[in-house]
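Cast an eye over this sequence plus tokens and walk me through the fold:

***
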Amino acid sequence: TLNVEPEEGRKQLTFIPLAPACV
């Protein structure tokens, strides 16, 4: 899922810090 388009990658960077916060 890391080999997606640049836009998706930017969303991932913003989602990564939110993932551990939800857990």
Q: What stands out?
A: The chain has a mean pLDDT of 60. DSSP finds two helices and no strands in the chain. Residues 9 and 15 are 10 Å apart (CA to CA). The longest helix spans residues 6-15.
